[in-house]
From TrEMBL:
Protein family membership: Belongs to the peptidase S1C family.
Keyword terms: Hydrolase, Protease, Serine protease
Domain called PDZ: residue spans: 233-302
Keyword DNA-binding: no
GO biological process, one term: proteolysis
Gene3D superfamilies in alphabetical order: 2.30.42.10, 2.40.10.120
GO molecular function: serine-type endopeptidase activity
Full protein name: Serine protease
């Protein structure tokens, strides 16, 4: 079961009730600690671990909790712990790979107020917000939006307008970004370095909440959005001075099966040159739905190689959550 631990955010960056026009403590009480266990044979066990911990936020009074998807992906055990130390079991409801958001249903009464879903579209650099972890003010950061821009993750993931927040929360996964009206405007996902690895400052990437309403009903009812799955290659790629480099392959994934290799430089998708990492992924997704053939041109040890990969559905490689 999750616990809040003995750590605390420094008092100088904790949010103070008088600085906000809403009931800060009530809003913070909607954030719960979340811990999960994943079977060792799970597809993501090696990369994400078999024991995961973070945060979630109650978005409906019936116990529906929103979090970041990697905490709950393939989990067969879920515990939710409230700010006053009560622990309740939960189960995974759904996960959306495109947004990175996931849902958990509490299997007992959390007896907490739900945090209202707001809008993230109007957030601008300089706007004040609170990045809230489970456990109240001592586990939350008085922060501000420092940027909103495209983000591409090496695991075949793109956000058109990710939110970037500072100061950084040290336990960012599933934190609630609370806006000026006291509503939920984003979910914490990653910690990054602004200004490079040496001498930079840590910042958080937050998934904007506007990605949730179009898929919420589908996620709650059927566990995934009601749309064709994107083609997935099962590769990890990064931008280098030489181009888009393959730095890893998922075991038994489409890329490995199609003879893509670590170190290959991706030059084109279906004959069209690729630009940055986001452009590479979008060109793959534009070819059709999961199962479509993906023609790649790569540079391998100085020579051009043409490949044809049969894409897959990422979720078919994952263990489905137990039924409740």
């Amino acid at each position: 079961m999750a616990s809040h631990g003995d750590w605390k955010i420094p008092a100088s960056v904790q949010p103070k009730p008088g600085d906000y026009g809403y009931d800060l403590d009530r809003a913070l009480s909607a954030v719960v600690a979340l811990s999960t266990r994943v079977p060792p044979e799970a597809f993501t066990a090696e990369t994400l671990g078999t024991e995961r911990a973070g945060n979630g936020v109650l978005i409906r009074e019936d116990g529906l909790v929103l979090t970041v998807g990697y905490l709950i992906m393939e989990a067969d055990t879920v515990w939710l712990t409230t700010h006053d130390g009560r622990s309740v079991p939960g189960h995974v409801v759904g996960f959306d790979a495109a947004s990175g958001l996931g849902l958990v249903q509490a299997l007992g009464d959390l007896a907490l107020p739900a945090l209202r879903i707001g809008r993230s579209a109007g957030l601008r650099p300089g706007d004040r917000a609170v990045l809230a972890g489970a456990g109240g003010r001592g586990h939350s950061v008085a922060a501000q939006v420092i940027g909103r821009q495209e983000f591409a993750g090496y695991w075949e993931y793109v956000l058109d307008e990710a939110l970037f927040i500072a100061p950084s929360h040290p336990h960012w996964g599933g934190t609630a970004l609370i806006g000026a009206e006291g509503d939920l405007v984003g979910i914490g996902s990653l910690q990054l370095q602004q200004g490079g690895a040496s001498g930079g400052r840590p910042i958080n990437l937050v998934v904007p909440i506007d990605l949730l309403p179009p898929i919420l009903d589908d996620l709650a009812a059927r566990g995934r959005p009601n749309r064709p799955p994107r083609p997935w290659l099962g590769l990890y790629a990064t931008e280098t001075d030489e181009g888009i480099a393959v730095m890893g392959l998922a075991d038994n994934g489409p890329a490995e099966a199609g003879d893509l290799r670590v170190g290959d430089l991706v030059e084109a998708v279906a004959g069209e040159p690729v630009g940055d990492l986001a452009d590479f992924f979008r060109r793959v997704w534009a070819l059709g739905e999961a199962g479509v053939r993906v023609p790649l041109t790569v540079l391998r040890e100085g020579r051009t190689v043409k490949l044809s990969l049969v894409s897959g559905d990422r979720e078919r490689f994952l263990i489905s959550p137990p039924l409740h």
